[in-house]
Amino acid sequence: MKRLVPLAALLLSGCIFGGGHTPPTDQRRTGAPGPSARQTQMCHADLKRIGVAFNPLPNRDRGGGCSTIGTVQLLDIGVPVTNLGAMRCGLARTFSGWARNAVAPAARQILGSDLVKIETFGTYACRAVVGVASNRLSGHAIANAVDISAFVLADGRRISVLDDWSSPDPQIRAFMRVIHSSACKRFGTVLSPDYNSAHRNHFHLEDDGAHFCR
């Protein structure tokens, strides 16, 4: 069995939370223009450079402030991921980096097993924010968010946000906190079960520049 890295060292290396505690603003959820064609092209080049397979998707204004502008369909990021639909290229780039360079190493080093699958609740959905008294659009409505529900390991274990965020197993708790902390350094908005009950079963990851981590 591979030697496990001491938990204290891993927690210290991953415990820098991005941003403060200022709630996300509404500006990014009002149907504002998405990334420019040049920004999207540059993002495509970045994905190719790091070996991520994807298909570019056509721009669509879906009405009611919902849109899929500058989006891609991820095909292969190095580990299977379920339920991925249209997602803005910038989000796809950040998500691929987090999965490959944070989640996979943490699984190996903390839990002693390779990551073989990430499960999600999806990406694009034309809907409002859930769990708060507001009718403002979610980041999902512009394909700029992904909800992560679980991680499957080579040894057969399935680590879920719902069941394992507060696991009695200290190594599993450490894994969850490390990957959450890493997400907070990469994504603009990261919401966990600590945010509200609507997020008890997933991490909401959004590439919005909001610097909000809970």
From TrEMBL:
| Keyword Zinc (UniProt) | no
| InterPro entries the UniProt entry points to | Extensin-like_C
Keyword list, A-Z = Signal
**Domain of life, source organism:** Bacteria
Signal peptide: which range, if any? 1-18
Q: Does the keyword Secreted apply?
A: no
Q: Report the residue ranges that make up the Extensin-like C-terminal domain in this protein.
A: 42-214
Protein's UniProt name: Extensin-like protein
Query: What is the organism field in this record?
Result: Hephaestia caeni
